């Protein structure tokens, strides 16, 4: 008689990032996919802010050059903050899902909202001055 076959050892998890996938257990795929969709929504938002910054500068919507450049830079910075929110939010949420922990809140939502408010105020000033 042959001895019973031992099951093969599981392959090491090589998914990126290891800081997320290296611990805990795989959550329900629906939750991970919802987290992915939220990540992609933040990426689209980031891209929209960057495109708006480029458009403000290229189309010269505001006549005052210094104000137009300030608005464009603020929009691009908001896009960068939204991209950071996408990544940080995805990793923190995925880690929480893997450890069955409460879902984290976002620390960048308020700064992004404030930046957008400043941009809107600057655009309003630029339109009124013109």
TrEMBL record:
One of its GO terms (cellular component) is plasma membrane. Keywords: Cell membrane, Membrane, Transmembrane, Transmembrane helix. It is found in: Cell membrane. Residues 30-96 form the DUF202 domain. Its main location: membrane. This is Membrane protein. It is a multi-pass membrane protein. Signal peptide: none annotated. InterPro entries: DUF202 (IPR003807), IM_YidH-like (IPR052053). The keyword Nucleus does not apply. Residues 1-26 are annotated as: Disordered. Residues 1-11 have a biased composition (Pro residues). The chain crosses the membrane at residues 39-62, 69-90, 110-129. It comes from the Bacteria.
């Amino acid at each position: 008689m042959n001895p019973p076959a031992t099951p093969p050892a599981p392959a090491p998890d090589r998914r990126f990032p290891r800081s997320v996938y290296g611990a805990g257990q795989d959550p329900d795929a629906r939750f991970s996919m919802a987290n992915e969709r939220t990540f992609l929504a933040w990426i689209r938002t980031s891209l929209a802010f960057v495109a708006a910054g480029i458009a403000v500068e290229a189309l010269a919507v505001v006549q005052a050059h210094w104000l137009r450049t300030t608005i464009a830079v603020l929009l691009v910075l908001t896009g960068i903050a939204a991209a950071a929110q996408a990544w940080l939010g995805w990793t923190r949420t995925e880690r929480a899902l893997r450890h069955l922990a409460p879902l984290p809140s976002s620390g960048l939502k308020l700064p992004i909202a404030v930046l957008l408010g400043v941009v809107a105020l600057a655009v309003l000033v630029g339109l009124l001055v013109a």
